[in-house]
Predict the structure.
Amino acid sequence: MVRTIGEVAAELGIEAHVLRHWEDVGALTPRRDGNGYRIYDDKALEQARTVLKLRRVGLSLPEVTAAMSPKKSAAQAVVRAKIAALESEVVQRQRAITFLQHTVECRHRYLDDCPDCATFVRET
């Protein structure tokens, strides 16, 4: 089945200009008809869905393009790097939650007076 850019955009819940931008940066490669209009067959639609999913899990457009590389090792390297970055972010956010939970429960009126808070502040 062949779809227009507007139909694909509506199906994915995004604006058509987003699809054009993805094409401009090389993350999406729809075919063109004889009049130069973009046509999205099932393969192009699936490619657009993949780009959208990768964007939603936090990859930048250059990372998306690299992750969709035909060379599997290059794609895996980008994905592994993103996994490591996300894992690091999870650790940092967990530390933030621990610190904030302590501040809520801290018996000291001012955080400066609390030795535990001072320990949290010195952590990197």
